[in-house]
Amino acid sequence: MTTSSYKLFCIGNPLLDIQVRDGEALLRKYGLKADDAVLAEERHMPMYDELVRDYPVTYVAGGASQNAARAAAYVLPPDSVVYVGCVGDDEFVDHLRAANKREGLHDRYLVKPGEKTGACAVILTGHHRSLVPTLRAAEKFEKSHLSSPEVAPLVDAAEMFYVDGYFLTHGTESILDIGRKAAAASKVFVLNLSAPYVVQSFNAQLQSVLPYCDFIIGNETEAEAYASTTGFPEPQNLVATARTIALSPKTNMSKPRIVVITRGPKPTVLVSSAEPDNVKVYEVTPIPDSLIVDTNGAGDAFAGGFLGALVVGKDLDDCVEVGHKMGAMCVQLVGPQFKWPKQCTRPMKN
């Protein structure tokens, strides 16, 4: 397969999810909240050994952008998606590579000898999940990897770029490098807000990247955090927030900016800077509680489905629909895995 076949280029923090159920005691002990995500601090570090020691653990390939990349690879023809990030040379990376191979995702990791691959504690309580990532090798990514002989041709050949907000915690210069190249070549650049703490604690980094973004994807909690952090008068007005983000300054004016806000089982909202008053609302088909196994990675699955449909030229209505179906598939499985349930219609054929 030639380099030019990889239409979608994704970058992020490769993590292995360490997932446990019935983690109410862990939430209390470490001061965590259900349906939240916080970057691990020193006080959280004993938790990773505690998970393995005291709980039945499930290991699932993770990292928000990598999850979305695998989801996009799942709905696209083979060798359509490439992913880069930084890993260690341990057994965790073997889990990640196996999962990527299974979905047809082509990875080009920067490997740091002697370092540990990043991990994410995933604490499940009923249908809720709390995420606590420790980046380890992931935050040692170097911008020079993007210009290396094995990666630079993939950057040049890609038609679309995707990055999660978590990468802003350490990799803003790399994101800006890709964003500038995308804008100069009029290629599509997509950013996921990823978590409330990203838009709150790394808002300056987010604002530096925003002018290069053609698509912004996020959920309602992240949108509200963005509005509060940037001083919007009505932070709970989701449509007003989406419209303001869509109309903020943009480098490549030949493309409109599209803002997509998901709301779990509630309707998804889409606003385009081309028609800011024409707000599109997409109903979501609820999944019965009896079929919901795990909500971890559902937002990444939506993003991957949306990206996959966008790559092949589907209109925005179809992109949202594919995203919804991928999210529905994800919640019926353990973690961000992709295996289409028999009772569902597959969103796109490879």
UniProtKB/TrEMBL annotation:
UniProt cross-references to InterPro entries, sorted A to Z: Adenokinase (IPR001805), Carboh/pur_kinase_PfkB_CS (IPR002173), PfkB_dom (IPR011611), Ribokinase-like (IPR029056)
Q: EC number(s) on record? A: 2.7.1.20
Which pathway does the protein contribute to? Purine metabolism; AMP biosynthesis via salvage pathway; AMP from adenosine: step 1/1
Q: Which UniProt keywords apply?
A: ATP-binding, Kinase, Magnesium, Nucleotide-binding, Purine salvage, Transferase
Which Gene3D superfamilies does the record associate with it?
3.30.1110.10, 3.40.1190.20
Recorded hits in Pfam families, A to Z, give: PfkB (PF00294)
The yes or no answer to whether the keyword Transferase is present is yes
Cofactor(s) demanded? Mg(2+)
Where on the tree of life does the source sit, at the highest rank? Eukaryota
GO biological process terms held by the UniProt record: AMP salvage; purine nucleobase metabolic process; purine ribonucleoside salvage
Entry's family note:
Belongs to the carbohydrate kinase PfkB family.
| Protein name per the record | Adenosine kinase
